[in-house]
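Render this sequence as a predicted structure.
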Amino acid sequence: MSSSESMPVWDTLDALAEMVASRQGLYVRWSRGPEPDLKAVSSRDGLTGLSLPGLSANALDVEDWWGDRSVRTWVARRLYDYSHLPRVRDPRTRPWVLHGAEAGRGPDNEPLVHQVEPLGWIGARAIAEAGEVITHQPGPWGPMLRNDTA
């Protein structure tokens, strides 16, 4: 068993929200996992092919402007935004949580993270719960890829 296969799993959105509320510098990355990613700690710009100075990820830290709103809803939105990736990119794509430092910003203004410490996988149940939370919000929303033509 590889080291990434033995990482802990956050099975519920509540468990993940608890982690996010208790620790800063967390990111979610959708990929095949830490093992292949940490060989180079670099993402590639899909348009130009340029190697980027860190892993493309999305910050889980709650922004100050969010106020005292639910951390669970914050985390649900952060997960839901990219939940289309396994369907459109590679079915082996899974979300995992890492701690790291920003090395810069990518072409979509996403954080590029280095000094990566893999912390654990995000389970399918947590992703499903994130979808339910977003579905019950008052405004219309969908994953970042808002059509199925890919």
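Summary. The chain has a mean pLDDT of 89. The CA atoms of residues 88 and 150 lie 6 Å apart.
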